[in-house]
Amino acid sequence: YEGKLTKALAEPVEALLDSASEDTWPAIRKLLQRETTAAVSGLESAISTFELDEATEKELLLRLENHGRSVVESKAREEAARILIRMKDRFSTLFSRDADSMPRVWTGKEDIKAITKTARSASMKLLSTMAAIRLEEDGDNIDTTLSLALVDAARPGTTDRSIQSLDPLASSSWERVPEERTLISPVQCKSLWRQFKAETEYTVTQAIAAQEANKRNNNWLPPPWALAAMAVLGFNEFMTLLRNPFYLAVMFVVFLVGKAMWVQLDIANEFRNGFLPALLSLSTKFVPTIMNILKRLADEGAAPAAPERQRETE
């Protein structure tokens, strides 16, 4: 019956601790009570045929109940030992994937600051869940203390306050939590959080760099100050163009040819692969594209003359 109780508790408790929410420990208490009650009931029926004295029977049943608690506590200590790995996994999952569990593409529209705060808050919730064993319904303030000290903005204190009031994590024990039920002390939580932020900072930096690179690739216009400078310095040339229609016609033809070259060469897509690869690719396609455009213009110019020659032949 101890083996059956271990099998019924170990994996479900591990899954509940991995999810880490406000309902984790209430769900574990409910699971422990249900499985222990079923195991004790089965053992009580099984030993009733052995005609044991009442003291021995109570001792066996109490031993089975304590075994269930020890299974939960042992599994909680195992999970607390690898809490840093769990926190980084949760941060990576929430930061790198969207609500549909699809990989994020940093296009420049995402709020990286808000995404980072959400992912870190979820990791902090996991740390709060694993900080102590809560098989009794005694309330504690671990979650609030960690939120104020780690996630929320730090508020400076006055010099006459004690270290404890300035830093709620400057302690080796939690308030209203016995030492035997403590898995991660406040000081250890602070050290783990500092290491967690240092090891996840690179992921955030890479996302910011990818977002900035995407913005630069998609922004082909010069900065506003350059547009203003061109408007001021090129005013005389602009007036010259307006006074001479020939210049306007030449510019219109150049615009049409340039637009055709832009579409045929797909310049915007080429430069997304990098500056040097784009230049190499465009250099190989430039001459064939020019020849293709001239051929199309020649074909369109010769098309109206063909029906005229046919009528003359008839």
What would your notes on this structure say?
The protein has 314 residues and is mainly α. It folds into two domains: 1-154 and 168-218, no CATH class; 224-300, no CATH class. It has 14 helices and no strands. Helix 1 (2-19) packs parallel to helix 3. Residues 153-164 have low confidence and may be disordered.
Topology summary:
Layout: H1 2-19, H2 24-47, H3 54-81, H4 83-96, H5 112-129, H6 142-151, H7 163-166, H8 186-218, H9 224-233, H10 235-243, H11 245-265, H12 267-270, H13 275-302, H14 305-313
- CA radius of gyration is 36 Å
Strands, count: 0
The helicity comes to: over 70%
Structural domain tally: 2
Principal-axis shape equals: elongated
Class by helix and strand content?
A: mainly alpha
Secondary-structure element order, as H and E?
HHHHHHHHHHHHHH
Tally of helical runs: 14
On the 0 to 100 scale, the average pLDDT is 82
Describe this structure in a few short sentences.
By secondary structure, the protein is mostly helical. It has helices spanning 2-19, 24-47, 54-81, 83-96, 112-129, 142-151, 163-166, 186-218, 224-233, 235-243, 245-265, 267-270, 275-302, 305-313. 73% of the residues lie in helices and 0% in strands.
